[in-house]
Every structure is written in C-alpha cells, then in structure tokens.
Amino acid sequence: MEKIASFQVDHLRLLPGLYVSRVDEAGGARVTTFDLRMTAPNREPVMGTAEVHAIEHLGATYLRNAEGWKQRVIYFGPMGCRTGFYLLLAGEYGPEDVFALVRGMLDFIIAYEGEIPGASARDCGNYLDMNLAMAKYYARKYRAEVFDAPDPRRMVYPG
Fold first, then answer.
1. What's the rounded Cα separation, in Å, for the pair 79 and 27?
2. Torsion-angle region of residue 149: left (phi > 0), alpha (psi -120 to 50) or beta?
3. What pairs with residue 18 in β-bridges?
4. Which contacts qualify for 113-121: CB closer than 8 Å, 24 or more apart?
5. Phi-psi category of residue 68: left, alpha or beta, with phi > 0 → left and psi -120 to 50 → alpha
C-alpha cells in the first residue's frame, strides 16, 4: 500500500502552525483540509483528552456559527496523535484565507466562561471528560506561537 500524504510530513521538523494538509475533490467540489498543529510532534507532550475534547466542542461551536464561514465548515476535530486539529472547509483556501477565522476561534476559547456547549449526558458521549482551563492554556499557547507574530515557516510543511 502507498503511504498516505499525512504520514509523509516530516514530523521531526514540524512546528506548531496553520498548514494546508490537502485539497481534495468531492462530488465536483474542492475541499481543503487544514492542519491546526498546536504542539510540536514528538518534542512536546501531547494534549490530554479532556482539553482536546473541550477545544473540539468550543471550536466547532465557534466555527459553525462564524458569519461568512459557517456554511463552508465540513468538519472540525482532533488528530489521533493529540498534537492538533483538522478543519475541513468546502472550497480551496490557503492559510492566509482562514488566519482570522482560526484566530477568532482561539480568542473565543480563551475568553469563554461557563458551561461548555454540548457538555451534557444528553448531548455528548463523554461529557465529563472536559478541561476548560487547559483548553484555554493550549489556545493561548497556539495563538502566541502562530498568530501573534505570523511566520511563513509555520504555514508551509517542512520540505
């Protein structure tokens, strides 16, 4: 079998960043998959499931309500390795196109107070596994490293 594209990225050189993972065609339409890499793979501890789960609920809530974008959001969810998230959007975009959207999502998470949307037994299959404080920590860390001082090296996969 061929090695899939995401396993061909040099994770030893990959920095936290906002990357285009791939652009696919589905039913005649383009779909862009973004890699929101929040930690340095194999060099930093991975995020715990509780903070990943909180980021997933808050991030999905923000993105699916974002004016001008909500109708283009196909999916937002965690990577299995727990070093970041995938964001799939209908259309073809680059990091510069979604920079403000993702920064807005981070700001939303950082400022969020109260019950996490969907964090109930009725709405979620594992609602008790949420950590808002750590979700905010990772959102602040990611914002500082990638969005507060944009660097083109954090928007193109290492060669």
1. 25
2. beta
3. 36
4. 116/54, 116/57, 116/58, 117/57, 117/58, 117/61, 118/57, 118/61, 119/57
5. left
- Hey, how many other C-beta atoms are within 10 angstroms of the C-beta on 24? 12
Region of 91 (left: φ > 0; alpha: ψ -120 to 50; beta: rest) is: left
Q: Which of 129, 132, 138 is nearest to 39 (CA)?
A: 138
Of the candidates 43, 38, 40, the residue with the CA atom closest to the CA atom of residue 105: 38
CA 22 to chain centre: 14
Q: Which residue has the tokens 């914002």?
A: 143
What tens digit of pLDDT does each residue of 113-133 get? 999 999 999 999 999 999 999
Helix (H) or strand (E) holding 75: strand 73-78
pLDDT digits (tens, 9 = 90+) for 3-33: 877 788 889 999 999 999 999 999 999 999 9
